[in-house]
Write a structure and sequence with these properties.
By secondary structure, this protein is α/β, with parallel strands linked by helices. Strand 3 (23-24), helix 1 (30-43) and strand 4 (47-49) form a beta-alpha-beta unit. The chain has an eight-stranded parallel sheet with strand order 3-4-5-6-7-8-9-10. A two-stranded antiparallel ribbon has the order 1-2. It has helices at residues 30-43, 57-67, 87-101, 120-132, 146-153, 172-181, 200-209, 213-222, 236-243, 252-259; strands at residues 10-13, 16-19, 23-24, 47-49, 75-80, 106-111, 136-142, 158-164, 184-188, 227-229. The protein has a single domain (18-259), classed as NADP-dependent oxidoreductase domain (TIM Barrel, Alpha-Beta Barrel). The radius of gyration is 18 Å and the shape is globular. It has ten helices and ten strands.
């Protein structure tokens, strides 16, 4: 008999209710992406994350259509690639995304990475226009350090910042800002690209609850106010396992042990990345 679901599965930021646990689709393409999204939705995921740069939006859209879940029940995020952030390019990118996804709006549109060569105000103004046209429900950013996020907040109604976040990479400045301004901090790469799956502390905590190291890492993230997580999972079994994190509770001592793993281990840091906090 399944244990009781002791934690809420959604968070609310600025009045917007969003599933805490989403399905990330980076590096899943073609038929595999269609099948993964269909399977994720059938398992119960209702938060799907993609990006123009992933090259999989048509497959994601196909998977959504095959699952037969009402579009209004899915929180769908896509992103604008950093090299094409001028206003005309913003509109062109989003129109391409909507066409490929087979939908007339996205729930959340993010700037994938900041681009210092394009004034942020120009990009955000174009995004606001698309929101006003009904093509976008909400606006956000990705890979923005706290100073740049503060700047964005002065220019547009931002509700989210998507960044790498896991027990080995603390994000204290962004977490504080998320709580101050009622934002969602969306954690990508919550397992540090697999590096945490054999971590002895996470494994030991998991053994006490009958859970894996990865499930412990997700539970630790989702316990935190303002935080959502979007793990990628290429197999049905991993997609199912990632959902099985709402039926156990970490103690304060366990959460402290997990937090002590932070060592500024960043696994995604391309040449165009900003200067991190």
């Amino acid at each position: 008999m399944p244990r009781e679901d002791i934690h809420g599965r959604t968070l609310t930021v600025q009045g917007v209710e969003i599933p805490k646990l989403g399905f990330g689709t980076w590096e899943i393409t073609g038929a595999a992406a269609s099948e993964a999204v269909r399977d994720a939705l059938e398992l119960g995921y209702r938060h799907i994350d993609t990006a123009r740069a992933y090259g999989n939006e048509a497959a994601v859209g196909s998977g959504m259509a095959d699952a037969g879940v009402d579009r209004g029940d899915i929180f769908l995020t896509t992103k604008l690639w950093y090299s094409r952030l001028r206003p005309a390019e913003v509109r062109e990118q989003l129109d391409g995304s909507l066409h490929d996804l087979g939908t007339d709006y996205v729930d959340l549109l993010l700037i994938h990475w900041p681009n210092p060569d394009v004034p942020l105000e120009q990009t955000l103004r174009a995004m606001v226009q698309l929101r006003d046209e009904g093509k976008v429900r909400h606006l956000g950013v990705s890979n923005f350090p706290s100073a740049l996020l503060r700047e964005a907040l002065e220019l547009a109604p931002i509700i989210a910042d998507q960044v790498e976040y896991h027990p080995a990479l603390a994000q204290p400045q962004l977490l504080a800002l998320a709580r101050e301004r009622d934002l969602m901090l969306t954690a990508y790469s919550p397992f540090a690209h697999g590096r945490l799956l054999d971590n002895p502390v996470l494994r030991e905590v998991g053994e006490a609850h009958g859970k894996s190291a990865g499930q412990v890492a997700l539970r630790w993230l989702l316990d935190q106010p303002q935080v959502a997580a979007i793990p990628k999972a290429s197999s049905h079994s991993n997609r199912a396992a990632n959902l099985e994190v709402f039926d156990f509770e970490l103690s304060d001592e366990e959460r402290g042990r997990i937090a002590s793993l932070a060592r500024d281990e960043r696994t995604t840091n391309p040449s165009w990345a900003p200067r991190w906090d």
